[in-house]
Amino acid sequence: MKSMASNRVLAKSINLPFLQDNKKIIYVSLLTLLSFFLFLDYIPGMHAYSAWVTPPVALFLGLAFALLCGQAHPKFNKKTSKYLLQYSVVGLGFGMNLQASLASGKEGMEFTVISVVGTLLVGWVIGRKFLKVDRDTSYLISSGTAICGGSAIAAVGPVLKAKDSEMSVALGTIFILNAIALFIFPMIGHALNMSQHEFGTWAAIAIHDTSSVVGAGAAYGEEALKVATTIKLTRALWIIPLAFITSFIFKSKGQKISIPWFIFFFVLAMIFNTYVLSTTEMGMQVGAGINDFARKTLTITLFFIGASLSRDVLKAVGIKPLVQGVLLWVVISLSTLAYIYWF
Question: Where would you find the membrane-spanning parts of this chain (predicted)?
């Protein structure tokens, strides 16, 4: 028994340092491999070889790399994932019709307003009253769950004057739940036999971050992707009033508010596609091409996002903030399902 235990320790001591010492090479190799197979789709007859590169697979590869090897090029990873996600979302706008998107967004608007306010209140009760999580961390987790994950936390944090440690814990909590959601939501949707529209609405409200919402929608289907993206980006506009309200409640004046300008470019892309590109056959092909390319860059973005998670982030999260995030997530997920099926 002792020899078996010592062998496991020895194997661990050999393998992990090897992976960590060569993590940059492994990182570049994984990214190159992923991109190569992903863009094989543009070569006639090669679609079968690229079909395995899906958003969940890309996220899983990034997560596996980060947990086994640690982070490689963290600054590049963070910056690239941020901007590539924004460009990808704008590109998705070239595959959407404005009238249809407005209809989807209008239908989900009522519950969006109720869920944003309700999530903030329930989050305060769970975090502050029951779990005794510190004020700023609890508020950041509630804000990220209520609106759009990391983007909301990044916008509200400076207004709240949150510490780096509080921001890290909140972001880590939301990020872990985002990664889980991308895998389990499509499975739950199929198990419940949800329609494309139902799943898109559910994912947009119950999943925190835009990247995971779009990834889950894409994994479920074309219509689910359109509905989820539209409702989520409409919901993301709440970042602006939330930041102002936070400034008023916590009396932090003069703080810069981070406005998600890419959402407005997404709307402009939809308008251009609806009234310009969709009027001709060639224009429709151009719009479809941009939309398809955006989906591929989104898949790569999920690899970057997955590779941003590390064991240090997991340790920093702690149990109480994670419990708050999970409980709040369960509440919003179940209440959204109830709304979809009964109203």
Answer: 25-43, 49-72, 84-102, 108-127, 139-157, 169-192, 199-221, 233-250, 257-277, 326-342
What single-letter amino acid sits at 315? K
Q: What is the mean pLDDT of the chain?
A: 79
- 77 with 35, same domain: the answer is no
Do 295 and 329 have their domain in common?
yes
- Among 329, 145, 106, 126, residue whose Cα is nearest residue 242: 145
User: Stretch 279-303: mean pLDDT, rounded?
Assistant: 86
Residue finishing a domain among 25, 53, 81 = 53
CA pair distance 210, 217, nearest whole angstrom = 10
Q: Is residue 127 part of a domain?
A: yes
pLDDT confidence of 74, banded at 50, 70, 90? confident
Both tokens of 64, joined, read 């596996």
Spatial separation of the C-alpha atoms in residues 263 and 267, rounded to whole Å: 6
Confidence of residue 189 (pLDDT cuts 50, 70, 90): very high
Distances in Å between the alpha carbon of 116 and those of 89, 160, 219, 255, 338? 22, 18, 25, 23, 16
Give the domain extent around 333.
73-342
CA distance 12 to 37: 31
pTM of the shown model: 0.66
Cα(328)–Cα(333) distance, integer angstroms: 9
